[in-house]
C-alpha cells in the first residue's frame, strides 16, 4: 500500500517536471525562436487575361500560407479568397490588385499589381460619365437643375457631390445618357450622410423628358429614393442607395431598375430637397449598367 502511494507521487513529480521543462523552453514573445512565425510566405501572383471574354482576368497565387485575401482595387477592401480568383472589370480604368497572405503566428505579407483596363465592356460597362466626381472633367458631365431659386445647393469636392440646405427647397443634377430599347438597366450609387436628414426626399429618375430650370422633375416616376417619411435617412447612413434607401419606386422591391422604352437619349436626374438636410447627403460612384 505504502509502495503504491510512493509510486503514484513519483509519477506526479515526473509529470510536473516535464511540464516545467516544456514551458521553460518557450520564449515569451511570438517570433523569438518558437517556430510560430512563418518566414517563407510568398504573396506574389500572376495576372492572365481570360481568352474570349471582355475585361476578365485570372489571378493565381501559390499555397505558402494559411489564409489568403484579395483586394481588387474597386473600393470594396479585402475579402477572403482562394489560390485563384477570376475577376471582371466592366469599366475602363486602372486597378491596383492586392494579395495578402497570413502565416503561422499572425505574420502577413502583401503584394500588389496594377491592371490597366483600356475599354469598358460594351454591355455591362457603366454608361454614366463622371460618376466618381474625382476630376473637373467628371464634374463637367453634370448639369445642375435649379428647381428652387435658393435654399438648396449642390457642391463638388473630395470626390463627391453633396447637397445641403433646407427650407423646403430642392435642386437636382442630371446628364443625358444613350440607352437601347427594351434593355433593362440598374442604377445605383454610394449615398451617405454624417447626420441624417429631417423631412427630406432624395429621388432618382430616368426619362426621355428633358429637365428645365425653374420646374420640378418627376418624369418616369421615382426609381430609387431615400425618404424620411418612409422610414430611412433620419439617422447617419453610408452605403449603396439600393441598400440604405426606401420609399415607393416604379418597380417595388427593385430600386434603381429602369427599362428603356426606346433607343435614344434619356436623362438621369438625381433630385433632393426638404425641410432640413442638416450636414447634407453626399453621393459617389454613380452607375447605370445594363443587366442580363
From TrEMBL:
<dbReference type="InterPro" id="IPR000601">
    <property type="entry name" value="PKD_dom"/>
</dbReference>
<feature type="signal peptide">
    <location>
        <begin position="1"/>
        <end position="27"/>
    </location>
</feature>
<protein>
    <recommendedName>
        <fullName>PKD domain-containing protein</fullName>
    </recommendedName>
</protein>
<keyword id="KW-0732">Signal</keyword>
<feature type="domain" description="PKD">
    <location>
        <begin position="60"/>
        <end position="118"/>
    </location>
</feature>
<dbReference type="InterPro" id="IPR035986">
    <property type="entry name" value="PKD_dom_sf"/>
</dbReference>
